[in-house]
């Protein structure tokens, strides 16, 4: 393995690929550089002398400016670099579209076709509570249902989408809860859903039902706990009705164009923008070439790289929606008296990320080079195939839940630090470095760290094959461990 990598010819930094020692020499374009500090893997080294306010360039773009003089061979990190970001910006549409480097290979996966034409990659039975008060009741219903019908049933998993909302909420928070839960009811990974209410909550079940629109009455049932004597017994009977409707469900080949995949990163490190995120970007372009759909979210982690996405807007309408996406999220920070640039976590910084631009330029690589076809507000469902942007925060569980609610059957989650969580759809963990994959094989599903040693096309083909296997039923670690959660974005007052 090489000691370091220069990501772009214009960069004035290189990134250490392994721990380097003070006094060690690096040869860069026939110039010998002596390290003046110990450099941890994933961290940056200056390869040019920099003065105060000089831009520090990585990926070919500024990631901040020097706040003190920096000499060749010095460590560049939070002690000598500061973000360039500050507040709301005005943007101009300068479209720069790319040709897709991949061709349609007419690939398929084995999924579940739904009556409305959607396709699931899982066939699960869900209870969706309208309010957190009935979470415990829902769990008891599922346990009794499984006890009575036995182990052999058409559902690959049974799950309560537990949350603590549905009451004591106002305005946008209340509507966000309703939207995300409605989206979950319609999700194609669910072969059946019981919507379970209490009876006195703000998120009234009958209003919720009216807002659902069209649904399969054989697969979606409703129960208000306060309106029956034995809610457990009544719920189990409804679950059995769903079971009867789903008993003949089976997988069948469907085109890869039916796959909708969320793109997410968390616990990022200095390798995120070198290995795992570029791998997702290449996969995103590949899936788009097959007629499929990918979704990029984490709006605060677009700050500093947003113009790259804006240039790829399909038209002026999509451009304006992208501008609104960025500036509305910045306004959210400002309204709450928080700086728009205070994003990299302690783990990010320890892994080598110094500023939000540093993080964002790595993060947005998950979107590849494809044209942005649409922009979704939080809680909206996919309308267009191709690469989409979705409004949601960077928080891992909130953003992953939003991707699932938008209609993604699968979330691809890159990480340099590691995390075990899962959303209510399969949440595949892709490590940015090999040591993480070796240390946490029960968390990590695919190791992108091998990109430092193998040809990228070989790794991409292996990755595509693995995703097709997962879409066809192979479990990822969060499913094996039964780590499944839903989190809903909250911004306002709790009564």
From TrEMBL:
One of its GO terms (biological process) is D-galacturonate catabolic process. Gene3D superfamilies: 2.30.130.110. It comes from the Bacteria. Keywords: Lyase. The keyword Lyase applies. Belongs to the UxaA family. This is Altronate dehydratase. It comes from Lysinibacillus telephonicus.
């Amino acid at each position: 393995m090489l000691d370091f990598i220069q990501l772009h010819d214009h960069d004035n930094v290189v990134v250490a690929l392994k721990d380097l020692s003070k006094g060690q020499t690096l040869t860069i374009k026939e110039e010998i550089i002596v390290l003046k500090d110990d450099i941890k893997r994933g961290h940056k080294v200056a390869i040019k002398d920099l003065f105060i306010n000089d831009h520090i360039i990585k990926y070919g773009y500024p990631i901040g400016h020097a706040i003190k003089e920096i000499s060749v061979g010095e460590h560049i990190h939070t002690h000598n670099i500061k973000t360039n970001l500050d507040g709301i910006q005005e943007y101009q549409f300068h479209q720069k579209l790319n040709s897709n480097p991949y061709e349609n290979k007419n690939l398929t996966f084995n999924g579940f076709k739904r009556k409305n034409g959607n396709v699931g990659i899982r066939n699960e039975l869900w209870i969706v509570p309208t309010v957190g008060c009935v979470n415990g009741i829902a769990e008891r219903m599922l346990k009794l249902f499984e006890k009575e019908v036995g182990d052999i049933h058409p559902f690959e998993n049974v799950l309560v989408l537990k949350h603590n909302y549905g009451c004591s909420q106002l305005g946008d928070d209340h509507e966000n809860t309703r939207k995300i839960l409605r989206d979950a009811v319609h999700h194609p990974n669910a072969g059946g859903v019981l919507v379970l209410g209490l009876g006195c909550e703000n998120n009234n079940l009958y209003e919720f039902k009216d807002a659902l629109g069209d649904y399969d009455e054989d697969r979606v049932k409703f129960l208000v706990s306060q309106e029956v004597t034995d809610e457990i017994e009544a719920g189990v009977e409804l679950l059995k009705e769903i079971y009867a409707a789903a008993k003949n469900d089976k997988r069948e080949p469907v085109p890869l164009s039916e796959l909708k995949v969320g793109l997410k990163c968390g616990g990022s490190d200095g390798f995120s923008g070198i290995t795992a995120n570029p791998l997702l970007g290449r996969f995103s372009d590949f899936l788009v070439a097959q007629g499929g759909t990918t979704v990029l979210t984490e709006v605060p982690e677009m700050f500093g790289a947003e113009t790259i996405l804006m240039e790829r807007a399909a038209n002026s309408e999509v451009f304006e929606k992208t501008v609104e996406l960025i500036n509305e999220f910045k306004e959210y920070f400002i309204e709450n008296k928080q700086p728009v640039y205070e994003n990299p976590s302690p783990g990010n910084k320890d892994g080598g990320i110094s500023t939000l631009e540093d993080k964002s330029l790595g993060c947005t690589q998950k979107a590849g080079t494809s044209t942005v076809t649409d922009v979704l507000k939080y809680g909206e469902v996919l309308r267009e195939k191709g690469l989409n942007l979705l409004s949601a925060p960077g928080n891992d569980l909130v953003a992953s839940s939003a991707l699932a609610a938008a209609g993604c059957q699968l979330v691809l989650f890159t990480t340099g630090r590691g995390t075990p969580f899962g959303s209510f759809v399969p949440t595949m963990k892709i490590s940015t470095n090999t040591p993480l994959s070796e240390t946490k094989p029960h968390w990590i599903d695919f190791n992108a760290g091998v990109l430092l040693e193998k040809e990228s096309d070989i790794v991409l083909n292996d990755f595509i094959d693995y995703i097709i296997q997962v879409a066809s039923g192979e479990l990822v670690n969060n499913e094996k461990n039964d780590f499944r959660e839903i989190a809903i974005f909250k911004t306002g007052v709790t009564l």
